[in-house]
């Protein structure tokens, strides 16, 4: 009952005229950004974050807008997957497998509508699970001390390293770079300046926004430039077909299972939509065994599963961000950084001390999802037309928005140069198959990790044994070890099983 | 190959970080760990990862040809130019120049690129400055 009261508070925030408008704007822009090939949710949120900050929104409004862009982009990602066979973002890779064959045989409209409904069901289901679990988790997390937080972050990084990216060692390098970037600037404990190279702009630390925009948006521009040489993409026509009730009934259990899978994987720190959709697809394929010859050729189950899962994981990854202050995906790491810029530290106390932010966000997600379903069924033609926007017109706008956004923070050209430099660095990292999300996760969590580690050792008077003190710390340590070993055990298990079914394609560089 | 070079740079970086952290001058400190320990731990972990990467690098699959490299360098120069011009020449002029060059770089015909960039820079200037009230440098054209 208490939860319902809080939810009512949340809806009061989310239905305030300005916030309502921001939800709609965010969802619309998110769908737009997600549907443009190459510009996924993480870039969309990154480009809009400095603008939202500079426009002086209150924190809950800024968060509502950015979150709208995030899950809106998860909706939009499927459009280019289905019609162009080019995933709009990493989470939509699995959608191409069955979505594109459907549109090739003239069922584009059916595929788009079915995936919109699956996305909606996935998000709504995950939101309900979020409402049920977030307050419980935050109640539990209130008992966490500095030791538990240190372990929690180590656990998050371990999950990230073993599950995301091309190789664990590369993810670890990314995390270390992020953590090191976080140590730049004045040390809060002693006032000593660290690694500033004598540049005054670094005394306050490396600006989070400059790093995010540089690494993601600027490197994306370079990547677009590199890919541009390829031939123009052909959009398959949408056609007049539409989803039927029989289709929906046929996939209801698929959607339900994929929603649960997506939500759980989303909650797991560091793992986002690309893994969720791959696991859901693999699971459905295995369940359908014997009847799975249509998978990959346009099976509606193969389309519904990844779409429900990637939207569910977007909601799921908000749970650890809000309750623990540990982001569940790259994009939520940016949202977390955004909250920190507003001097709000997400964590177990957020739900009690600032219910308007936590519950306002949750309520806005309910509204946003309904709006997205409405936008995505009748207005689909508009988004489809946008797919044909030429990059000659798109890229100048992206570049302009990043420069305006960064300049408006401090009004200092130094940030622009530093941003471009980071963009080159980000581009090189991508080319060498380092994923960028770990860098951001490290940057966001670096200060908190160091602070908690130092606090823990202050409590123990310098004895590192405190890290293995108490049942919770032990549990988390064991969980970390499990996360570290699980992939190798899984591989060993798969090798020994005879008819090993491959769970989807390889999870290469994921940007979500 | 690139992996090894990059790992070498990382190794160098970790050494520099460790050295810089250890030579920090900390006048007073109330807690046992202080500002040095955390960066040193990170540097050690980074060094281990870099050594591992050097020992077992991934196969390189990035083979840009000269045309692509030229395009990338062009894009990079444009962004640096934008950063130089942004404040000194003002938003409208800088966006017009860089926007048309970018549009041209992505295959638009020169005249149409310039026309598009002109509309974009003027339109977005008033949109950003007056409607969104952002801090946009006016520069020489508006008499900044």
Short description:
By secondary structure, chain A is mainly α.
How would you characterize the overall build of this protein?
The complex is a heterodimer of chains A (512) and B (144). By secondary structure, chain A is mainly alpha-helical. Helix content of chain A is 72%, strand content 1%. Chain A is built from 22 helices and two strands. Chain A has helices at 2-14, 17-35, 41-54, 59-84, 93-104, 108-141, 146-163, 168-183, 208-227, 245-250, 252-267, 273-287, 300-316, 318-324, 330-341, 350-353, 355-376, 380-386, 391-410, 413-431, 437-460, 471-496, and strands at residues 185-186, 193-194. In chain A, a hairpin with a 6-residue loop joins strand 1 (185-186) and strand 2. With 144 residues, chain B is mostly helical. Chain B is built from five helices and no strands. Chain A: Pfam families: TctA.
Give the topology.
The complex is a heterodimer of chains A (512) and B (144).
Chain A: H1 2-14, H2 17-35, H3 41-54, H4 59-84, H5 93-104, H6 108-141, H7 146-163, H8 168-183, E1 185-186, E2 193-194, H9 208-227, H10 245-250, H11 252-267, H12 273-287, H13 300-316, H14 318-324, H15 330-341, H16 350-353, H17 355-376, H18 380-386, H19 391-410, H20 413-431, H21 437-460, H22 471-496
Antiparallel strand pairs in A: 1-2
Chain B: H1 2-22, H2 34-55, H3 66-88, H4 91-105, H5 110-131
Helix pairs in contact in B: 1-2, 3-4, 4-5
SSE series of chain B:
HHHHH
The biggest sheet of chain B, with number of strands, parallel, antiparallel or mixed sense and barrel status, is: none
Oligomer kind: heterodimer
- % residues in beta strands of chain B: under 5%
Helix content of chain A: over 70%
DSSP strand count of chain B: 0
The end-to-end distance of chain B, rounded to whole angstroms, is: 50 Å
- Our Rg estimate of chain A from Cα atoms comes to 22 Å
Termini of chain A, distance in Å?
A: 35 Å
């Amino acid at each position: 009952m208490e939860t319902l009261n809080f939810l009512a508070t949340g809806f009061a925030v989310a239905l305030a005229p300005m916030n309502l408008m921001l939800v709609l704007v965010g969802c619309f822009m998110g769908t737009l950004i997600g549907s443009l090939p190459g510009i996924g949710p993480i870039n969309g949120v990154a480009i809009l974050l400095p603008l939202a900050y500079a426009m002086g929104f209150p924190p809950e409004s800024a968060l509502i807008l950015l979150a709208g862009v995030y899950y809106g982009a998860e909706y939009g990602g499927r459009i280019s997957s289905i019609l162009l066979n080019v995933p709009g973002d990493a989470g939509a890779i699995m959608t191409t497998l069955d979505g594109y064959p459907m549109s090739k045989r003239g069922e584009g409209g059916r595929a788009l509508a079915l995936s919109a409904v699956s996305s909606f069901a996935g998000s709504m289901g995950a939101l309900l699970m979020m409402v049920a679990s977030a307050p419980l988790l935050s109640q539990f997390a209130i008992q966490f001390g500095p030791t538990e937080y240190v372990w929690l972050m180590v656990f998050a990084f371990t999950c990230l390293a073993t599950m995301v990216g091309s190789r664990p060692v590369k993810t670890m390098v990314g995390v270390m770079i992020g953590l090191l970037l976080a140590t730049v600037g004045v040390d809060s404990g002693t006032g000593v300046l660290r690694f500033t190279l004598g540049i005054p702009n670094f005394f306050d630390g490396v600006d989070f926004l400059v790093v995010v925009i540089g690494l993601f948006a600027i490197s994306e521009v370079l990547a677009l430039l590199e890919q541009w040489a390829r031939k123009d993409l052909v959009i398959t026509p949408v056609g007049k077909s539409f989803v039927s009730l029989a289709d929906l009934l046929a996939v209801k259990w698929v959607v339900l299972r994929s929603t649960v899978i997506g939500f759980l994987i989303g909650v797991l720190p560091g793992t986002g939509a690309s893994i969720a959709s791959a696991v859901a697809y693999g699971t459905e394929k295995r369940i359908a065994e014997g009847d799975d010859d249509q998978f990959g050729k346009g099976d509606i189950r193969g389309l519904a599963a990844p779409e429900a899962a990637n939207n569910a994981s977007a909601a799921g990854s908000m749970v650890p961000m809000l309750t623990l202050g540990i982001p569940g995906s790259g994009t939520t790491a940016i949202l977390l950084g955004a909250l920190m810029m507003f001097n709000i530290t997400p964590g177990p106390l957020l739900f009690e001390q600032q219910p308007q932010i936590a519950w306002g966000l949750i309520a806005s997600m309910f509204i946003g999802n309904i709006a997205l379903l409405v936008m995505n069924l009748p207005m689909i033609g508009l988004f489809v037309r946008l797919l044909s926007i030429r990059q000659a017109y798109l890229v100048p706008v992206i570049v302009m928005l990043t420069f305006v956004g960064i300049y408006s923070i401090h009004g200092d050209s130094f940030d622009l140069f530093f941003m471009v430099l980071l963009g080159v660095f980000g581009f090189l990292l991508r080319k060498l198959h380092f994923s960028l999300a770990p860098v951001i996760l490290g940057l966001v969590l670096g200060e908190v990790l160091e602070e908690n580690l130092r606090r823990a050792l202050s409590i123990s008077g310098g004895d590192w044994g405190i890290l293995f003190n108490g049942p919770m710390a032990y549990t988390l340590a064991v969980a970390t070890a499990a996360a570290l070993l699980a992939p190798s055990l899984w591989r060993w298990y798969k090798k020994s099983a005879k008819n090993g079914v491959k769970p989807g394609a390889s999870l290469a560089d994921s940007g979500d | 190959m690139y992996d090894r070079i990059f790992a070498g740079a990382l190794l160098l970086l970790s050494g520099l970080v460790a050295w810089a952290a250890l030579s920090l001058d900390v006048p007073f400190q109330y807690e046992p760990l202080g500002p040095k320990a955390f960066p040193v731990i990170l540097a050690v972990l980074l060094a281990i990862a870099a050594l591992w990467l050097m020992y077992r690098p991934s196969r390189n699959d990035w083979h840009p040809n000269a045309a692509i490299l030229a395009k990338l360098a062009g894009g990079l120069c444009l962004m640096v130019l934008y950063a130089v011009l942004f404040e000194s020449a003002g938003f409208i002029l800088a966006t017009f120049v860089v926007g048309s060059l970018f549009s041209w770089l992505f295959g638009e015909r020169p005249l149409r690129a310039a026309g598009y960039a002109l509309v974009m820079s003027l339109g977005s200037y008033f949109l950003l400055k007056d409607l969104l009230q952002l801090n946009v440098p006016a520069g020489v054209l508006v008499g900044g």
